[in-house]
Design a protein that fits this description.
Blueprint (H helix, E strand, L loop, with lengths): L6 H17 L4 H18 L5 H12 L2 H16 L6
Helix pairs in contact: 1-4, 2-3, 2-4
Length: 86
């Protein structure tokens, strides 16, 4: 099963990658910019596997670039305290 198929697994996956990036010294600004780029890719190139991803893709599709950046930053905040610190 893909991590994209279960919302909690997806959040845990993102959290683990976030912790790893932070431990490697990646700044919050860089993390946020990467989240924005990844969000754009997922919204346009990857089919949503669960209702939560569908909502995010729908929001992304109507959001301005500034709003998309806010969505990406909010996702980072959402997963920041999840997952296992690396």
């Amino acid at each position: 099963m893909s991590v994209l198929e279960n919302w909690d697994s997806w959040k845990d996956f993102l959290a683990n990658r976030l912790h790893h990036a932070q431990n490697e010294g990646m700044s919050n600004e860089v993390v946020s910019n990467l989240a924005y780029q990844i969000g754009g890719y997922l919204a346009t190139q990857v089919e949503a596997k669960n209702p939560q991803e569908k909502v995010l893709a729908d929001l992304w599709s109507v959001a301005s670039p500034e709003e998309q950046q806010a969505i990406a930053s909010t996702m980072v905040k959402l997963v920041q305290n999840n997952g296992t610190p690396q």
